[in-house]
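Quick entry between incubations.
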Amino acid sequence: MDEASVARRGLSPRLWLAGGWLLLALLAAIFAPLIAPQDPLAQDLMLERLPPFWLDGAEPGYWLGTDSLGRDLLSRLIFGGRIAFIVAFAAATSACLLGSALGLIAGYFGGWADRIISRIVDVWMAFPPVLFAILLVAVLGTGLSSVILAIAIIDWTRFCRVIRAEAMSQARMDYVESARIAGYGRIGIMLREVLPNVLPSVVALLSLEMGIAVIVEAILSFVNLSISTDDPTWGSIIAEGRLSIHQAWWVLVFPLITLILTVLSFSQFGEALKARFDPVLR
Amino acid sequence: MSACLEIRGLSAVLPNGQRVLRSVSLAVQPGEVRALVGESGAGKTMIGKAVLGVLPKSVRIVEGEMLIEGEDLGRLDAKARRTLIGARTALIPQDPLTALNPSRRIGPQMTDRLVRILGWSTERADKRIRQLLDEVQIRDPERVLKSYPHELSGGMRQRVLIAAAFAAEPRLIVADEPTTALDVTVQKQILRLIAQLQRDHGTAILFVTHDLGVVAKISQKVSVLYAGKVVEEAETEALFAAPQHPYTRALMAATPRYTDPYASLKPVDESVLAGLAVEIAAADQAWRPGHG
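Done. Structure below.
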């Protein structure tokens, strides 16, 4: 193996930086009760709006400062990560399974199946996604499962459209025709010949969708439509930080940075994974 | 003994009613190479696809019969037809770049069909594949079997595809312009390999090509196709010695010759095309009344 391919296979900095951040954030979320320095819900009005550690007036143990109710910002971010990751994995996976399956069927079988699925996708995409999400959560009621369901219901079309197009172009390839001649069944060909070739795109989209799910959850929290207001989420912390931006900028800035880094990492990680999965690019 | 492949009066139309195959009849005897020659759009690939049951959805067969070793494909249900085609035929495709699944290694890709469709044991399939790779003169089968398609050159991929086509001992192979996508130097080797394997295995081949040079080298019989109609059919030697149809003569005249590289290329003469148009129109006239 030459040097360039070593770099591409193993040591892509994009993969490591993005993966590293995601791993760090994920571990922090999983072990939140063990590593969070403070109770994320504990209020202490004596400690309100403490600045982060490098500024005058910071208290030890409150690394990123506190909000207007004296709650520790770092601990709230760590606990907020739990919601973010649960939503990211559950919602993105559901959207992925639904959208990819329908996209594969539409793209490979074509004809009526394609016409029906494509029309549904067209109608679906006509709704503004954020408004659709707010509407859905309003109907389904707030709560974690509603948020996950809402994101899956809205975003499966992303998978469907891309996978349909990929499956269509693969279905036209001669190797699919050869499989037909050899006597493979249609469903077998779809799963054994076409699916592996669209998988790199599925993986890239899945990771991208996790980032999008994090954003949508944050938006829903921001407008107070996610889960109960007690549990910290990145969106709700941002919403609170917005109110005290002039007195305590850190309450807004740190969750924003966390959110941006996470979303960026998801999309970069997906792209890097795609490059590794794809036998032709590899 | 029945013909390996027999096509009788096959006609096919597009949704707009245009005929793409006009009462095509031809037979390929066991162990024989039948060339199907014509310019692009003449319907030669269409005939191959019809035999293998992979016509595009838009093309509809309206008339005619296809028999593989005496079994009428039209009388079989879809499943039996697939089984028959899968067991007795194979395809050597035109473009080796898209004819192999890019995400699967060559080895599993080649043995899979033998094991899964024909029910061979893994060892038997593996042994068979190695034997065939040897026959197509692949020197390092280990490496090739472990490779992904994109790691092989076009010529190598075509060798793999030829090996795969012969692996299941089909009675009939449809070779759809198997050398067109390759370099001229590689073309010659591939052609020689197909001829060699054909002789060794005694497989009948329906060889689709636009290249009369290839026809002369590989086939015993030729059907010349124009606009989906067989305009001339003959033994290859007889055809080259004395082409009967003006279109065949024009095609031969249009073939560039290495002996005279500075001669300008000759297109098929206008008068020949006009004659063909009349012939096609007459054939359509004769066909339509009976079939509404």
